[in-house]
Design a protein that fits this description.
Elements lengths: L12 E6 L3 H12 L4 E7 L2 H11 L3 E4 L8 H11 L5 E5 L3 H11 L3 E4 L4 H12 L7 H12 L5 H6 L4 H11 L4 H8 L3 H14 L5 H15 L2
Parallel strand pairs: 1-2, 1-3, 3-4, 4-5
Amino acid sequence: MNVSGTANKGETCKVFIVDDHPIMREGISEIISREKDLTVCCEAGNVLQALQGIAECRPDIVIVDLALEKSNGLRLIENISYSYEGLPVLVYSMHDESLYAERCLKAGARGYIMKQEPSRKLLSALRTVLRGEIYVSEKLSEKLLYKFIDRKNDNLKSSIELLGNRELEVYQLVGQGMKKRDIAENLNISLKTVENHIEHIKKKMKFKDFHELLRHAFQTAASCTD
């Protein structure tokens, strides 16, 4: 299905918000409601609601949070990119851009902005993506350019890039101090699946044991909050 990513000049652009926190959706709606060229056409709290709503509302852009209840924002981005060609997605997430932004862009998103940013930057990101451009922070833009020019990255960062999307989620939650059983509940997967992901992470990142994985995951989490 082809969907136009932008409204005609002079028209109000319709924004669809996907976030599992009602208060966050209300906050984003309030910010957008003050703008003459933007309007919120629909909201959703999970992937199923989002896909149904997009078909009904036909928005010009979709704002997606990565941490959706019992699901994964990356999979939603891939689904939108496949099913609604031309419909731009802007990721608005608390997850550190250094770990997730490039993955989101590869999945089909047209921009990535962290929730810590002021509202004016969210509006700027929306308008940038609606113009058909890519939006990322200056810091991330420099990192991606450097990565393209000079492929030499430190071992920890480059090994993280070897992880699959679900493995990265598990790695990040381990770094937040979450127990395996809690990770399983958080991601709506079995404990055995979590343990399998941890084994794959250990092999890909060449960790001798879980304690070494844990230490590096803590280090990564700490570096992302600097």
